Amino acid sequence: MGFPWYHVHTFVFNDLCRLLSIHIMHTTLVASWSGSMALYKLAFFDLFDLFLDPIWRQGMFVIPFMTHLGITNSWGGWNLWNSFISLRGSLLWFWCISGNRLVWSWNMGV
């Protein structure tokens, strides 16, 4: 029989150090997964035929969410280049941010 989702919190609710360490480990796992998956998808991303083979048809699901978070163009209208977004420049920023997530997740896990 399975336990309900909140069953883990009942074990660690009164132990603050264990609760904090579990949440830090979860953050580490999520950051490392998103960083490694973004690097993997960037390695196979074909940007030369975006009309017939758009980003959603290539199986990209991490990179569009990274653009919604304001990495290349935010909701407020600012961007990293102040004039327009070049696709090759934004790919460089995706590589940097994905690598940054991996490095920080390794630092959190140690």
Automatic annotation (TrEMBL):
One of its GO terms (biological process) is photosynthetic electron transport chain. GO terms for molecular function: chlorophyll binding. It is a multi-pass membrane protein. SUPFAM superfamilies: Photosystem II antenna protein-like. Keywords: Chlorophyll, Chromophore, Membrane, Photosynthesis, Photosystem II, Plastid, Transmembrane, Transmembrane helix. It holds the Pfam family PSII. InterPro entries: PS_antenna-like, PS_II_antenna-like_sf. This is Uncharacterized protein. It comes from Capsicum annuum (Capsicum pepper).
